[in-house]
């Protein structure tokens, strides 16, 4: 009772830690444009009713890993942009790369695209289903120039899956989920290795000058902005590789972090410092070339941090790849001169699927009635501080991931099989079933030694048969008190909601790997390997073989 009372008193507790660093001008940085450009006026006529949209997606940035959340890693650019914009402090994404990216670009939950399970692997004949309309396609319909720089990770086994076929006028970046920051090579398994840097639909060998990817991508963004007419609306999707492993950074970014003993945390800090500087330089370019005054800059991480790779989600529970808050509650903010309530904090519920309808509406586009979206238009929530139209989030239902051996229909009151990994949020309540994943709290002192030290981690032990958890996230954002036994009626209500969602799910797309995907068969490059002509030839051959069999059978029958 005492704990419950304390938790109730904490219902309005902020996860913020105030105090951000000054912006400060820097030189010779990550793709920096020459000169101090912050004071320059925008080009005349740049203001239009359709805003320029710049969506920046970081990779594997932990919830704590930003200055305004109390991190020891300096992020003056992010801190300033967030402080002058709107911080999203009840903002959710998915626990891994592909799911977050697919939901951003379609406005749909994973269960409605078939990407419920894991990520798209490099060797799988799989991609974001071609019948899904994408955000850049909708923006192109209303006159936007659309450009993507960075990590795709939505499949590429056939040409139709490539970014330039899914709505982007141009693409410069990688197709896979990770790779070397300098050489752009990636090995999926021993002997299955290839080059992964593309410009539009071709390998970008000419751009392979050993430049660190964060800096290289920023330079590309600057080139796009310099060559585009700011009087015409632009959508820039900048999906940085940082701070995903492998942990690599240029030497000079280690300068402020040599005191960090944990080598992974030290490298991670240097990578984040470089990313912060890169975003400063993107902002400088927006000002220099006349976009800034009519722009909307959205910043988001794609999932929680990975402590074993230097990321920190403290004080949240869990990590990347899990449905605990540390895996799905993200760093996010909106910065724009067009915001009405600048310098504020939004604590309303916002999900990554919401960007699709929000940005299309801002762009004066139309959302077709037959597109059944899971996202909501949340611009008034963010800009004006109004209530969010969203009251629930289906974090996911993964029918393939059934590692909770003790899960059963009985444990789910006959409503739901709790062996299935699933998670849902409805108002203040969050329910998890199955095996939610790594569940430790990893405090800052866990990074004090040379290697990851789990001795410092906090754990909660539960019976081996447990497959249902219930939390009041508003009162208990750190998921320390399981209320499933105390509120069985709430558990049943949320299980019914899960069941309702599940009835709308499409079959899972998770095919076995295809040996034809080996880069050795494609000039040493990761890229489309599935040829439509081959499929037709095979079907024609099979049809011919069937005809021959039928004629033979007829002869035998005669």
Write structural notes for this entry:
By secondary structure, this protein is an alpha/beta fold. Helices cover 24% and strands 15% of the residues. It has two domains: 52-390, Alkaline Phosphatase, subunit A; 410-502, Arylsulfatase, C-terminal domain (2-Layer Sandwich). It has helices at residues 2-9, 76-84, 97-106, 135-141, 213-227, 263-288, 325-328, 355-362, 379-384, 488-502, 532-557, and strands spanning 52-58, 86-88, 91-92, 145-151, 170-174, 185-189, 192-195, 198-199, 202-203, 234-239, 295-301, 332-335, 344-346, 350-351, 392-398, 421-426, 429-433, 468-472. Strands 9-8-5-4-10-1-11-12-2-13 form a ten-stranded mixed β-sheet, sandwiched between helices. Strands 15-16-17-18 form a four-stranded antiparallel β-sheet, with helices on one face. The protein has a two-stranded parallel ribbon with strand order 3-14. Strand 16 (421-426) and strand 17 form a beta hairpin. Helix 5 (213-227) packs parallel to helix 6 (263-288). The longest helix has 26 residues, at 263-288. Mean pLDDT is 88; it is low at 1-28, 32-47 and 549-558.
